[in-house]
C-alpha cells in the first residue's frame, strides 16, 4: 500500500516535470487527479474488508491448511495483533468461558477437567512474531525453538484470569500442547514465571529423533511402510495435532475424566474425538496448525 | 448514536444562547468543543470494534445460545448484511468449498454426499429480516412461517454456484433443514424457482402437533417425565437442531454414504456425530439455532 502510494506520488511528480515546457522550474505544486485521496481510502477500505473476510474464514475454520498470511494483509494483521482488536477478542472469549464455567455444578469426585493449549492460548509468542512478519514468514522451527528456549513468553492476561477462575471452581487443569518433551522444563519455568500457578497434567508430544523442520514422508522401515508427516516444527512428531490431541482427550475420558471446557487457538485443539462439552476458540490470524 | 449526536448538537446549540448576554442575536455559529468530531469517530470506531469482536465470537462458536443481536450492534449488522461484507464472505466460503470439492476423487459408486442446509445457506431470508430488525427482534415463528409460505426467498448466489459445481462433480446432494414437513411443497417450489435444479434427498423435520412458538417444558405424560424443549419455531420438534442433524447424518453413514462436504450457516449444522470430512460455515450474525 505504502509502495503503491509512493509509486503514484512519484508518477505524478515526474509527470509534472516531463510535460513541462517552461524554461524555468515551475513551483513545486503536485496536482493529484481529483479524488485520488478518496480512491486511496476506498482501496484501503476494500483491502481491509478483504482481510477481515479472510480472518473470518480463518476463525470459522473454512480455509484449507495455509502456510502464511496473505501478503496484502500484513499491515492488517499487524494492526489487529498489536492494537485493541486482539486484546478485545481475548477478553471476550475469556469472559464467555468464565460465564459458562460458573454455570457448571461439579460434584466432589475431582474428575472435571478444563483443557488449555499453551501457545497463543496461555502464553503469547507475539514478541517472536513481531520479529518474524506476523505470520508472513514461512514458519522456521529452529528459530522458533530458540525463542521457546528463552522461556520469556508473557501470559495472555485474559486467559490467566480464566485459568484462576476454573482452578478456584475446582476443575482439574490439563495442559495439552504441541510443544515436545524436550521443552518440558523450560515450559514449566515459563508458565510459572508468567503466573500459572498449578496444573494437574502437562501433556507434551513425545520427543522424536528427527531434527525439527525436516519433512519425511513414506519412510519404509523394513517391511512396514510408515508415513510420517512432519508439519510445523512444534507439531512434527508423526501425526497431525488434531489426531494427537483427540487421542489424548480420549485417554482422559477412558480414565474417567469429564472434559467440560477446552480453550485453544487452533481448530486442531478443539473438535474431534472426546471433544469437550464446550470449546473456546481464541483468535489467531498468524498461523495454522492442522 | 444518531440520537446521541442530536442530543450533543442541541446541547451546544442551547448553551450558545443561554450564556448569551448580548441584546441582539449573535450570528448562528455553533462552536463545537475542540476535537468533538474526533470523539464521535472514536466512539464509532470503538463500537464497530466491539461489534466486530462480537461477530467473531459468533462465527468461532464461542458464545452461549443467544436470542437477539446486541442492541448497540443493530447498525453494524445492518451495514454488514446489506453492504459488501456479507456478500464478500459468502463468495469466499463458496470459493473455498469449491476448491476443496475439486480436490476430491469420487469413485463411481454414487455414495459421495454433499449436505446443504437451506435457510441462510441456499435461500436468503434477508428480505424478512430487513423488516424484522436484522435479528434484534425476538424471533416470531408465526410471522416467519408466513414468510416461508410465500416461497419467495432468493437464492444465495455463491451457494448456487457451489451447488452447481458439486452436482457436476457427481456428488449426491442431500438437503438437511430445520424447516418442517408442512413446508415441504413450498420449499420445493421456492428452491426450484431460485434455481436449485435437483437434489437427491430433502430431509425436513417431522410435523409435530404443537403450534409453532409454544414452549413446553417438563411435560409429564403418565408415569414418564418428558422434557420437550421447543426452540425457534423452525426448530421446535422436540430436539435441538444439533441432535436432529447429527442423527440424520448418522443415518446417511449407516446407509453407506460418505459425507465429504457440508455447508451450513449454523454451528448446529456442522459438528457432532457423523460430521463431514470438511464443513463450511456460512456467516450469519442475525440469529442462533442451538
TrEMBL record, chains A, B:
Pfam families: Acid_phosphat_B. Residues 1-18 form the signal peptide. The keyword Metal-binding does not apply. Keywords: Glycoprotein, Signal, Storage protein. SUPFAM superfamilies: HAD-like. This is Acid phosphatase 1. Gene3D superfamilies: HAD superfamily/HAD-like (3.40.50.1000). May function as somatic storage protein during early seedling development. Belongs to the APS1/VSP family. The keyword Signal applies. InterPro entries: Acid_phosphat_B-like (IPR005519), APS1/VSP (IPR014403), HAD-like_sf (IPR036412), HAD_sf (IPR023214).
Amino acid at each position: 500500500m505504502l509502495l503503491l502510494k509512493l509509486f503514484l506520488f512519484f508518477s505524478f511528480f515526474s509527470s509534472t516535470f516531463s510535460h513541462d515546457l517552461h524554461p524555468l522550474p515551475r513551483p513545486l505544486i503536485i496536482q493529484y487527479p481529483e479524488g485520488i485521496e478518496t480512491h486511496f481510502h476506498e482501496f484501503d477500505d476494500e483491502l481491509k474488508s478483504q482481510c477481515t473476510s479472510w480472518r473470518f474464514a480463518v476463525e470459522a475454520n473454512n480455509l484449507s491448511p495455509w502456510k502464511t498470511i496473505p501478503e496484502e494483509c500484513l499491515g492488517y494483521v499487524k494492526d489487529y495483533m498489536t492494537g485493541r482488536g486482539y486484546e478485545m477478542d481475548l477478553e471476550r472469549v475469556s469472559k464467555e468461558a468464565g460465564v459458562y464455567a460458573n454455570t457448571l455444578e461439579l460434584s466432589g469426585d475431582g474428575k472435571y477437567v478444563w483443557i488449555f493449549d499453551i501457545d497463543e492460548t496461555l502464553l503469547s509468542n507475539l514478541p517472536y512474531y513481531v520479529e518474524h512478519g506476523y505470520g508472513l514468514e514461512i514458519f522456521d522451527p529452529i528459530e522458533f525453538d530458540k525463542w521457546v528456549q528463552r522461556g520469556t513468553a508473557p501470559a495472555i492476561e485474559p486467559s490467566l484470569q480464566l485459568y484462576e477462575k476454573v482452578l478456584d471452581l475446582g476443575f482439574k487443569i490439563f495442559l495439552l500442547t504441541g510443544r515436545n518433551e524436550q521443552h518440558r522444563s523450560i515450559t514449566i519455568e515459563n508458565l510459572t514465571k508468567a503466573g500459572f500457578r498449578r496444573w494437574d497434567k502437562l501433556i507434551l508430544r513425545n520427543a522424536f529423533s528427527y531434527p525439527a523442520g525436516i519433512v519425511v514422508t513414506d519412510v519404509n522401515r523394513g517391511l512396514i511402510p510408515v508415513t510420517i508427516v512432519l508439519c510445523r516444527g512444534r507439531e512434527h512428531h508423526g501425526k497431525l495435532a488434531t489426531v494427537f490431541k483427540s487421542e489424548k482427550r480420549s485417554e482422559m475420558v477412558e480414565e474417567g475424566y469429564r472434559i467440560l471446557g477446552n480453550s485453544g487457538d487452533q481448530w486442531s485443539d478443539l473438535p474431534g474425538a472426546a471433544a469437550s462439552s464446550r470449546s473456546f476458540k481464541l483468535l489467531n490470524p498468524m498461523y495454522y496448525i492442522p
